[in-house]
Amino acid sequence: MQSSSQLFISIITNTGLWGAIISTLVITFLGFILHKTKVLNDGATGAIQKLIINIIIPFLSFFSFMKNADNYDIKTYAIVFGLSAIYYVALTSIAILWIKFLPRLIPKSVLRKAEKDYVEYQEHVELDAKQIWNKDICLEKLQKKHLVTWLMCIYGSNILFATPIVLGVYGTGVELGALNIWNILYYIGGFGLSFSLISGVKFTKKEFKFTLKKAVLNPAFIVVLIAILLWATQYIPNWGATIKNVEKELLTKNNVLKTFDKVGTFGPNFSTLYGITDKADPNIIKWYQFSRIDNFWVKYNGSPTGWFDWNITMPYIAKPISILAGLISPLIWIVIGTSLAKTNIKEMFKNKQNWLFLFYKSGIMPMVILLLVSFFVYSKLISVNVGAILVMVGSVPPGTTVVIYSQHFKNNDKYTSQTSSLSTMTSFIFIPLWLVIGQLVLHNISK
Length: 447
What we know:
The chain is an alpha+beta fold. The protein is elongated, with a radius of gyration of 26 Å. Strands 1-2-3-4-5 form a 5-stranded antiparallel β-sheet, with no helix packed on it. The N and C termini lie close together (9 Å). The protein is built from 18 helices and 5 strands. The longest helix has 35 residues, at 71-105. This is AEC family transporter. Belongs to the auxin efflux carrier (TC 2.A.69) family. Pfam families: Mem_trans (PF03547). The chain crosses the membrane at residues 16-35, 47-65, 77-99, 147-172, 184-203, 215-236, 316-336, 357-378, 384-405, 426-445.
């Protein structure tokens, strides 16, 4: 068992983690330069964003489930979905109640200060533009600001920021699948519910249908559900990795006749594999596949897998999907770099409220998720890696949809733009930091 210091050193020296961080910084800076030099304008950036959301993310979502299904995976995915339901439903409900009862919670001293600041501001305004202090308008503005603050904290940009790190550090294992499961309710809340809340429309039955429609018609959401369904079919008998006892004699290399005691599916191109159990260790099986070129059975380095593991069963289809999925990281960071190029850096750093939001988003939210997942890691229901990823997800910058809706409806648009940019700039510190913290804390909890 590794000590905490050994684990810390192994994490911070992880070449995958540093490769992801350095790649992020370099490509983001490239996007910054491309916008400053007018190689990429807002129109081009918008087109890339649409490409990412409508094409690349769906391919990545599909690709993350293209693997063999086993009992550990389905247990992990079920628990992660349950945790995401607790997180999103509970926090969104608290946010709605908070906004509803906010006028009663505001201390009179805060209102008096707001009135004083407003009067001082009006003294410097032209006579024909002067307005009288209105408490109701002030409270309404405050409600709207609290609303977007809550939504930006709850619905982070999981897809754009967490995905490249997960791919760089963990590859395409159960961790990436868990991230996509966590994002299912994000699509509903971040794309649909957020639109309704920020737009200010009355949440009627008709509006509920519109919100649900806006979420479920999102391409990535649809593809995730299709991918999960296809992945789950591997639990149907003989559709997943299947190993049976058999006694068969087959010719191997150099015309050696060997007796095989196992038969399994699936191998490359849906082929059947034959295996020989190691006499010293029954858990070890040496697998063989038939070579059509040499016309005899040759050693196979893998093992039987499910039909949906297209990297093995249909590599000719898996390859273009993996290439498209691999485009997500560079395209995302280029777009983020162009966004930072448009930000007033000086004004962004100067505003104290922006730093207060950063404390909420990159400090409080990952801590909430850490507390949420600790019991499940302690009980060995999910792995340390999966738990650490969920903790890291809490620290990512606000979701782009929430910020876009805020800009569109002029709901504290300047505030959301600056806080989003500040969170993006500091994410290069907080995202890997919380991944390390999550790994260390959850590793000690799981002992």
